[in-house]
């Protein structure tokens, strides 16, 4: 019987791990881009599986705050699959998250990755949301459409109105009540809203003397590109979502950003709203899973 060891990754593990990750997808894998960051960050732990002294798998756990953790980057060498390594790595990562105080752990999987979906559900994780990605560059010739809409930055005085709006939203539960950034997610709480409002990262659409939609967005450098990352977008109808998506795209040039990318559920309403303002839809969709650790 093979001996399986799960241990923290070492700098010397890099090349053997990247070798079996090279063909994860047709285009390769992102592990090479994040390896050094994952290896060194104090808020997380990079774990590897060793089978008979051969590196056979890897996973990363990140703890965001006192209670929230994220599981990502699970890879198993094709030569060692169907030996329980994925489960062993996930279990070790969950133990590490608990050791660091996390009470909830989440992950995202491609909606077509049945092996990862089955593994997640067999480990008592439940699907809480889903999302797709929509993106667009700055307008080359913007119209005057957005000037007719009252889209503005939120203030702390808007907090109760925003919370009431989210409590009645149809989109909020579709994404699990989560704010997404860099393929990770945290709950949209009053604390997060306050933080984002103070950072001037919450945009409101008000029409007919009521809140008609909102977006939470932050500028970031991702994959060699300066982006406006929209981790949550909501609207009462196609028109409202379209107005906000248009306005955010319009702001790119002023913010000196190269692209806006939006995390949103894959619904007909959302798709039509983004299509109307010329956003490109990523063909992939993702499920978000969650499990309590206590």
Could you please describe the fold and organization of this structure?
There is one protein chain. The chain starts with a strand and ends with a strand. The chain has 294 residues and is α+β, with helices and mostly antiparallel strands. Strand 10 and strand 11 (210-222) form a beta hairpin. It has helices at 14-21, 31-40, 85-99, 114-122, 159-167, 190-198, 238-250, 252-255, 268-276, and strands at 4-8, 44-51, 54-63, 68-76, 104-110, 126-136, 150-153, 178-181, 184-187, 202-207, 210-222, 225-235, 259-264, 280-292. The chain contains 9 helices and 14 strands. It has a 12-stranded mixed sheet, with helices on both faces. Strands 8-9 form a two-stranded antiparallel sheet. The mean pLDDT is 92. It folds into 2 domains: 4-102, Gcn5-related N-acetyltransferase (GNAT) (Aminopeptidase, 3-Layer(aba) Sandwich), CATH 3.40.630; 132-292, 3-Layer(aba) Sandwich (Aminopeptidase). GO terms for molecular function: acyltransferase activity, transferring groups other than amino-acyl groups. It comes from Dictyobacter kobayashii. Residues 4-158 form the N-acetyltransferase domain. This is N-acetyltransferase domain-containing protein.
